[in-house]
Specification:
The protein is an alpha/beta fold. A hairpin with a 2-residue loop joins strand 12 and strand 13. It is globular, with a radius of gyration of 23 Å.
């Protein structure tokens, strides 16, 4: 049966644009409906500081380039630059400074010796280095085994298991992450640092029997394969390049449009109702690709929810600082911020924060991960700010559950979280972070904080979950059906002509655009 379009894509973010470019290049008629006036979705950024030409987004520090295959296939003209690497583990306030871990065994051993971090009481720093190396090697093995599969159909559980040693599989897939970390590492500060990255999205903890933290750890390991490539100019430049690829191939983009209803009609074309330019429009499409969260898609379809509402545990503060802080023992200071800067996140402090969250309190000092995206890409700032030594600092507070924010007004929650983040930074930097933050033209500090409640209200992510849904393994279980192309690529819904295409798609967090890529591949296979 004829339709107005071969494919309608809900959302013109990085995933939607990737799918649009692939499908339009194949000769299909494509319509993208994007609610914002510009494409790019959550990574495009907005200007939050009065009189300062800097676009910020809560997702800007984690953006990578699409996979090399996608860049080649679509002929993307977006330049790329080397991403941030390494980890700086800050020491407790009683011993200011920290240890810089680069991945080089000799360098890390020397850094641990200088910091006095061994494997335990009376242990040598060399032993501490071996502890860290054991986890680092395991993480690298996960990356090597699973990252190459992200542009292929999903692996079965048994296929994924065959790519890893039995020891690695049991440690990272079958048992809570805390077990292997406790076994391999005796130092409490290092233990916390090694699990911190697994606590940035789901509401979880190192001993969580649900293994949500393990799924996040594995997803983070897979994403390391793309972390060394970031789009020069940030999300807006990547969005520009993808928009050009899609439009030049014939895709139509309607900005300022809001999809109101999606009506699958069995094997007939899908009917979509949306509002744009002050009028309600109705079109049909052979297939609909939705980059919105699954919870939101259920509501557009009029379906009951298959699973519970996701709960994020993220709060992100973006600061414009006049200079980077001085870190005791680190010269130049930017060495500490080339990768992830772990602050107040020892295993003990993480457990204490979780206890306080459960009691309805925000800790005085929040466990955080700090990134400085402008070190990898100075073009995120205008020339005048670059030359002045300014930087964008993005801070992720760990483990702050959405449910905690539901207990108080959003403004109060944001204010308390922001205060906790700033206190945490001042404690580990050895100088007051307030003195480093620039003021805008109105005299207000250039700090913008998003709690999980804000992420839900501003970006439409239910429960404030930055990945749109609870994290999943990068493989499917043996009992899961993989009869259709949509199932094999992990984009299936209950409706044969409606596919997922956003950040909730399995493996979508590994690099930019993978959700849209998987949906496009499923369309090609379905039509072949």
């Amino acid at each position: 049966m004829a339709a107005d379009f071969d494919v309608l894509i809900v959302g013109g973010g990085i995933n939607g644009l990737t799918a649009a470019a692939y499908l339009a290049r194949s000769g299909r008629s494509v319509l993208v409906v994007e609610r914002s006036t510009v494409c790019g979705g959550s990574v495009a950024g907005t200007r939050e500081f009065a009189g300062i030409d800097v676009a910020v987004s809560p997702f800007m520090a984690d953006l990578s380039m699409p996979e090399p295959r996608i860049c080649r296939d679509l002929g993307l003209d977006c330049a790329q630059t080397a991403g941030a690497t390494g980890t700086f583990v800050s020491l407790p306030a009683t011993a200011p400074g920290g240890v810089l871990l680069t991945g080089d065994a000799e360098s890390d051993a020397a850094a641990l010796e200088r910091a006095g971090l061994g494997a335990g009481v009376g242990a040598s720093a060399a032993a501490g280095s071996n502890d860290v190396r054991r986890i680092a090697d395991a993480r690298s093995a996960l990356t090597r085994a699973l990252a190459p599969s992200v542009t292929e159909p999903l692996l079965r559980r048994t296929e994924a298991r065959s790519r890893l040693s039995p020891e690695l599989w049991d440690a990272f897939i079958e048992s809570p992450l805390a077990n292997i970390v406790r076994l391999a590492v005796s130092d409490d500060t290092l233990r916390g640092a090694l699990v911190a990255e697994a606590l940035t999205a789901d509401h979880t903890f190192a001993d969580d029997p649900s293994l949500a933290q393990n799924r996040a750890f594995v997803a983070e390991a897979i994403s390391q394969a793309s972390r060394d490539r970031v789009p020069a100019g940030g999300g807006s430049e990547l969005a520009r390049s993808l928009t050009h690829a899609a439009v030049s191939a014939g895709a139509l983009i309607t900005n300022g449009g809001t999809v109101q209803r999606i009506q699958p009609m069995g094997e007939a074309p899908v009917r979509v109702t949306y509002r744009a330019a002050g009028e309600t429009r109705e079109v049909t499409a052979q297939r609909v690709l939705a980059t919105v969260p699954p919870w939101t898609l259920d509501e557009l379809l009029g379906d009951a929810h298959d699973a519970g509402r996701p709960e994020g545990a993220t709060a992100i503060a973006t600061l414009l600082v006049g200079r980077l802080p001085h870190i005791p023992g680190v010269t130049p200071a930017d060495l500490a911020f080339r990768g992830a800067f772990i602050a107040n996140a020892s295993a003990e402090l993480l457990d204490d924060a979780r206890r306080q969250y459960g009691e309805g309190f925000i800790p005085v000092t929040l466990p955080c991960i700090v990134r400085v995206p402008t070190l990898a890409d100075p073009r995120l700032l205008p020339l005048e700010l670059r030359n002045s030594g300014a930087h964008i600092m993005q801070v992720t507070a760990l483990g702050l559950p959405y449910s905690l924010g539901e207990r108080m007004p959003p403004d109060l929650f944001r204010e308390r979280v922001q205060s906790g983040i700033l206190r945490s930074l001042s404690a580990v930097f050895g100088e007051n972070i307030d003195d480093l933050v620039r003021a805008d033209e109105l005299g207000q500090p250039c700090v913008r904080t998003w709690t999980s409640v804000d992420i839900e209200s501003e970006f439409g992510y239910p429960g404030g979950h930055i990945h749109q849904n609870t994290m999943a393994w990068p493989f499917v279980d043996e009992h899961d059906t993989m009869d259709s192309p949509a199932e094999r690529w992990g984009v299936n819904t209950r409706h044969v002509r409606v596919f997922q295409a956003g950040g909730s798609v399995r493996r979508a967090g590994a690099s930019a655009g993978l959700g849209g890529f998987a949906a496009a591949m499923a369309v090609f296979e379905s039509d072949s």
